[in-house]
Queue: 4 jobs
Job 1
Amino acid sequence: MKKTILLLLAVISLVAVVYEQSSAQQVIATFDKDPRKDSVNKKVVTYPVLLGSSDLSGGVISKQLFDSLLHQGLRPQDPEARVAGFLFNYMERNIYEDSVGNIIPVTDLLMEYCPGDTLTTAISSSIYYRTKRGDTAYFDDIRVVWPDGKEGRGKGLKFILR
């Protein structure tokens, strides 16, 4: 009788150990999956975005034209869509002089997220006085929204002022 009880307990403990190992291996197998492998083949679709009422989406531009188009904001090429927000980066080239008189060229970076399709009032109050030849403006992380609620990503813009 004692032998059968001991044998039964041994079989139950053996089954429990085997079951724990198999469930642990299943958990490890789920952690071994790399989530990046699923997104490797997915392509991000970007939609063309233009500056103001022009057909410009980047390149070398004059200061006067850039200022007038910047005041108008961004617009998607698709007339039904609208820009819901973007990240504005402005790299301003300046020349400073140290205490000995050596010239030091420095690039100052202005970066701000702008909700909507135009610049925020904080930036627009001073940017038109600061723009000059050699500066670079970037428009990144552009959110494009359609009337049906569909959202997309706009293609970034880069303008170099001449």
Job 2
Amino acid sequence: MDGIHNIVPRNTPLIACEPGFPSQDGPQCKVYALAVVHHILCACGEFPLYKNGNDKVISARKVAKSCGSQVGEITSPKLLETVASQMGLVAQTMPFTDFSSMVSLVRKAFDAKCSVIFFVQMDKNDAFQPGSDNCDEQWLEHALLASGWSPFTNRMLGTSSGSQAGHLDNDVLSVLCFNEEGQQVIFQLKQIFESSCRVAKQRKKERFFKHHSVTSEGMMAAGENKSQLTVCEHKKCRWHDYDQWNQPLLERKAAMSPRFQTYNPDLLFQNIQAKKIPSITARESSAENHSFHKKLVIVRLGS
């Protein structure tokens, strides 16, 4: 496939997203990370590449769907590389075995002015932090974009000369990342490594659900969160993934509504596919499902 547009490199690469860059909407962290990389590195006349309801910009989610994604999810490193290519980027997946090899890859990437996407498990109790304990469920997996060293690490590297710069204590290295709202955050590289070790080695297929509501005429209106199963509270939700995070809600709904019948996620999916719950539409990821365990992706502009 040919790229979707002609890339125009920025004269001065950004270190932060401009005001107005939208928040991640739904289970699309990997395509969102690519969109932020694109925004940092390129000036395409239209920003951002992450559409999020804005008809005036290109939809990164639509690009992903053209490559085999159902709702914007990316289920394998190979698919991520394909989507990146369609966005005018080059993405190279690199495995690492231990913290030292991870640091080596990151150093080389930042020296080459590339961005890095890490794959981590977010903390179950603090969804804004990469976790290393009690965070094994697949629904906690997250793509974390880093655009370079943190200001503190940059100062350390700048004040260390020659071989000293290569022997800085790796445990104190930190990187400048972007959260789900396009805002800058700083994490210790060791924290990211420890979390990356918890990423699933064998991923499950992902399921996504769209909520509908019944209008006064009896027609189904897409994109609204009034449904027999209310788990999506914010207005912008289009697709939502169910996993253990929503299990208490499923149980509570089943207890309150006899016609709901079950809180078993598999049976719920089957009932929706059989159109027994008309207020919800379901999809299942169909692209190949490969692990992001102890891998990172180095991203740069295409030629």
Job 3
Amino acid sequence: IIDASVFNTLKTDYPEKSIVFDGNDYSLTIKGSDITTLVPNTQQYDLSLTFSAPEEDKIWNLITDLSQENWDLEPVYVHFNHHGALPADMKFSISLGQKYQNSTLYWNYYNEERERIDYYGYVNSNAQGGFALPLTHMSTYVVTRKRIVGAENKVGILGGAVENLSTSYSTGKANPNTGKEQ
């Protein structure tokens, strides 16, 4: 859990620096120069995540109600304990393991307020099943091996006007601690 004042200090006193928050199999990186404003009324950010979501059954029902073609999906839930906007884009790097190595994976958002699944684009994983993408909002995301039929298309909202979210971080290390190039 990070106090919001940390981001303000980074923005004002260390704009040339970045902070990397490491979790188990994931990291979040934010640059001081990228912080333009702080999110009002947010005192703390819980940057932890789990691979299960409190609303997992509801999400699965939404996905399968969209189309029978979705019934064979094996979703990976990425649930952040914080729900809301971030003070700036963060580089989100995650490793899902070798089961997901060298794959095209589809990045979807569970839009709780509108009770729907939003599709934001795809990523290409590396040999360790890792990938990186820009993250502007924390909530519950769903990673799948094929596109969710019937999901609301939000391509271009995240990471610019491209569907391939991997292009945002196509060079360098997906996770600074792995030593592996993406």
Job 4
Amino acid sequence: MASSIDNIFQEKSKAIDDALLQINEKIEKFGVKHGQALFLDKDNKEISKGDAFSELNIPKGTAAIIANGPLTIKGDIKNISEDKDGNKILENISVFAKASVTANYTFSGSQILAGQDVDIKQTVVGEITAGRNFISKGTISGNVSVKGRLIADASSADSNIFAEKDVTIVGSTRGKVTAGGNFSSGIISGIIYGEVAAQGNVTADKIYGKVSGDNVTTNDTGLNPEINAEKNFITKNVVYGSVNAKGSITGIAIHPTAKIDTPHLYIREGSKKPENFEGGVTVVPKKQWKDFTPPQPEPKPENPGLLSHEATEALRSFRKNAGSECKDIGDSAPCPPTHSTTSTAIQR
């Protein structure tokens, strides 16, 4: 499991670095001055210029925006044009911003490359690549790759998410998530339906899909989850599905149809030991079960970055720095790499 995640991590990390190179290339090609935002049509002809440090409207016919600094869009990132009969057409739009990008909504076909943070208030579709963190109070329905942390309300079945650090999805997680750090979700509505792979720990209210991580902890599971834990798997309810844990598995009981592989089980008093299980078994008295926690391995050092997983703290940190020039403030790699023939991908 670990080698597979490491390979994906390195490939995705390199892809982010390669994509972010386009920001400086565009700025240099079109001579965009510091603090300036340039709006281009589909033929790369200038429509207008704006102040990158102000809230801007997208002019009609815009196909690309190049910002030498942050970019704050008033409303949605979209390009609506008209055909010869006056019918409205939603066309693709690309954004290249050296610092942060803030907008209300993105549309299918849109592409955002940002050297720092990206903050999308509502639903996210299209493709987004960020040199630092991504934050949304909406649902991710597109492809998002970031070198920092990612925080969102939910993700759809069409989503593909990668973050070099921690991922927090408050509600339901569908689609695919790969996290270089920990993955966590809401303690009440945080349900994993899709596929989550983390180099750190995974915590969720319920797991119905496929999950891998260091320690995997959940309140409950569906009938057919696939769970791989490099260390421990813990649930306070019955263990269902397929669970592989190199440390231990903890659950009230092991369902007769469950397929388990672990050196040790912790089950509640009154539960049956699974047939043909040859590992160790510890039976926990019923009165102790509610507060029981199995022995834990040494915690993995947390990745540096934002000080909190909470979306409110992340948003506060993001807005504090959104208007700053592109510079290293100690959180991942906020600036796009300078033009080079050699990739700056992190080697793990």
